[in-house]
Amino acid sequence: MDDPEQWLLSAEERGNPHTAIPGWTAGNLCEPLFHGAAYFDRLVEEVQALNGGDHLFFTDWRGDPDERLRDGGPTVAELFTDAVKRGVCVRGLVWRSHMQALSLNKEANRRLDREIEHGGGEVILDQRIRRMGSHHQKLVVLRHDEDPSRDIAFVGGIDLCYSRRDDAEHRGDPQALPMAEVYGPNPPWHDVQLQIRGPAVGVLDTVFRERWDDPTSPDSHNPIAWLRDKWHNARLQADELPPQLPSPPECGPHLVQNLRTYPAVRPGYDFAPDGERSVALGYSKAVKRARRLIYLEDQYMWSGEVARLFAEALRAHPDLHLVVVVPRVPDQDGAFAERPQLVGRWQAIEMCQKAGRDRVHVFDVENHQGTPVYVHAKVCVVDDVWASVGSDNFNRRSWTHDSELSSGVLDTTRDPREPRDPAGTGDGARVFARDLRLALAREHLDLPGDGSRDDDVLDPDRFVQTLTAAAEALDAWHEGGRQGPRPPGRLRPHKAERLPLLTRLWATPVYRLVDDPDGRPLRLRRKGTF
């Protein structure tokens, strides 16, 4: 590509001069791993190949030490502590979290901390966040001291915890977390993780080191948490990391931009004293270049600031379609858990539909047994050119308030399949972005995995028509009493619910203050920018 910075942020555009990471790196090789079973299997393979002197660094939102990564194990704790026994440097940063009674992860994360520390590794329970915030990054970096070409990293939406080890059949993880009743005892779970080789692995190593080396106490501004952690012998001071290993050599055609969110906190991070919002800035830059198709998979899709970005693109480009795949219902039952999320999602979808009318297409997913699938993936593909996989959702919380980590990928290889330049801009479709969209389409539509029917979904207009027809056929089959063979596909038209006025009166402020808070500095809030 003649000018990658048409799509990717420059180092200056990242908006954070205090970080050591570059704008982007070239020469990487990226592979999407669909669902937790595939990711966990690859993770086991790569970690078991580590030897003495190698490094294993990870960050997580929730970690369950006894989550089995394969049917017969090992568990997360077994995999990581066995690596320690072989002389691998194992270090982790896990959100300290809040109690399980709030559907959060304090007990699980403390158990992970305790078991890995007992096995010889080091884990910090990290609470350097804003009020009601979290560390939401999901990252594993594996470095080899004798052969950097073997270095590998995994980044995306999949935590090392219960409910994530599902596959394309979507029968759920045998070790399940309790969720809304509609998802059943083993909730089906749709997710994506990105495997990366090449120089971007060295950048992700730096991402970890910046957080690890930040001098602020992990229990900052929380004396009660400090006392509890002292009582439980939690690690409150990070030991020095070993020297950073040389960057891996170039090995592929992919440009990778590591995008992050860090909130504005006090005391500020040394590496981001005013926070960082390169996730928001990177997505904004890519979406503004969209001409024919934006494809999203997202857990939430419920923020006015984010929806406004898509609405402006739809108004500016009359041939642009927006396709969104979301969960059918929120992950937890109960009015306080459900209603604010439904308010936010209805507002966001309504804003986009007013801008794009019949060019906005929203779907949810079910498995072949009819059980809704919880969509946890955070994927975006723009015009089959730019793609991203990460931990961030399309809401203000992820773009300003929590810590997040996403990877934007720009392939230097043009795709030879027609249409070769769907946007008509001269950029041309790119292999990685198009293959990512097609792989997800094959799963959702029950198309052959060998790509023999990809002609049904290559062209953006035909893609939209095929999704819509399949979803409407499946919906009609359900509404007709499920008579006759079940139509192929797993998509259903998503019906965003507008709640009654009295419900909106209390749910809207809860949504804005609790579900979707704003972590920007005051000057950026006033300007309405990131």
- Would you identify the regions where 5 or more consecutive residues have pLDDT less than 50? none
Global Rg = 22 Å
Helix content: 25-40%
Shape: globular
Q: Quick one: biggest sheet?
A: 16 strands, mixed
How much β-strand is present in the residues? 15-25%
Mean pLDDT: 93
Structural class: alpha+beta
Report the total helices: 13
Strand runs, count: 18
Ends distance: 27 Å
Features:
single chain; 530 residues; alpha+beta; two-stranded parallel sheet; 18 strands; 32% helix; globular
What does this structure look like?
The chain has 13 helices and 18 strands. It has 530 residues and is of the alpha+beta class. The chain has a 16-stranded mixed sheet that branches. The protein has a two-stranded parallel ribbon with strand order 7-14. It is globular and about 60 Å long.
